[in-house]
Amino acid sequence: MQDPVPKRMQDLKGDVTGFLMEKRKQFEKDVNASLRSLNENLQGILKAEQKSRQELKSVYCERFGSLYQKWLDEVDSTRDQEEYLSFITQQQMKILETAIADHETKLENAKEMCGTFLKKANNLSKHGKTFIGGQQTNVEKEISKVQDRVIMETQDQDVSTVETYLQSLILDRSEETI
Question: Which long-range contacts (C-beta less than 8 Å, at least 24 apart) are formed by 109-117?
Answer without folding.
Answer: 110/154, 110/157, 110/158, 113/150, 113/154, 114/147, 114/150, 114/151, 114/154, 117/146, 117/147, 117/150
